[in-house]
Amino acid sequence: MNRWIFLIAFLPIIGSVIYLYSEVLSNKSTFRAVNKPTIDIGATINPGGRIKKLEEELQFTNTFANKAKLADAYLAAGQTDKAIDLYKSSLTGAFDENEHVMAQLIIAYYSQQRYEEVIPLAKKLYKLPQFARSKAHLLYAQSLENLGKTDEAEAEFKAMKGRYSYFEQRYEYGLFLMRQERDDDAWQVFTDMLAEEPHLGSIEKKSNRVWLNKAKDELRKINPSEKVG
User: Fold this and answer.
1) What is the DSSP-derived secondary structure letter of residue 19?
2) Can you say whether residue 134 is alpha, beta or left, with left for phi > 0 and alpha for psi between -120 and 50 degrees?
3) What is the CA angle 127-128-129, rounded to 5?
4) How far is the C-alpha of 168 from the C-alpha of 202, rounded, in Å?
5) pLDDT at 15 over 60
6) What is the pTM of this model?
7) DSSP state for residue 94 in the 8-state scheme
8) Cα–Cα distances in angstroms (integers) from residue 137 to residues 118, 119, 173, 211, in the given order
9) In whole angstroms, what is the distance from residue 77 CA to residue 187 CA?
10) pLDDT, tens digit, 9 for 90 and up, residues 134-183
């Protein structure tokens, strides 16, 4: 009888200890791996190693996701021809108008001055809400300019204007105006940008500092005698 009382009383405790060891302590490293953010140091130091790994993954599993990841890596590494070939081959079936791939293709084509090929892709993306603030939209405007369609280009630059935002796009619009020998209009664009700087939060100031500083530099070129803070 005493033996049965002992088993009834202590089996739950023994079971808990076994569970604690097997499910928590032995899997502690797994828990940390899932919950602790990691940085792929190898990819930063050796981008070629990351590309090789992605190439092997694609060879093993030929999926849209693996193609897109490898193409992104190619583009980031300056292997633009390889990126374009892979992006184009991934635009099939259910993914024939994938937004990410088309936007990346715009970046790739623009980097190779293939402006004519930017236009149809941008038109496919144009009505998407996220396109308005995207790098692809900016490159679309610049492609139109490079093709001599300055009125259409300006319309796109104007569409990217907005107070306390779009600083990169507005800076590029100012440069566009300078290229059109409209320094007074460019001066106004840059001045408006800098007038908003004191009203930005610390995060917005930090993320847009490069464009605000560039705007100051351009103002000095337009009016060297004017002091720009």
Assistant:
1) H
2) beta
3) 110
4) 17
5) no
6) 0.77
7) G
8) 10, 10, 12, 17
9) 36
10) 999 999 999 999 999 999 999 999 999 888 899 999 999 999 999 999 99
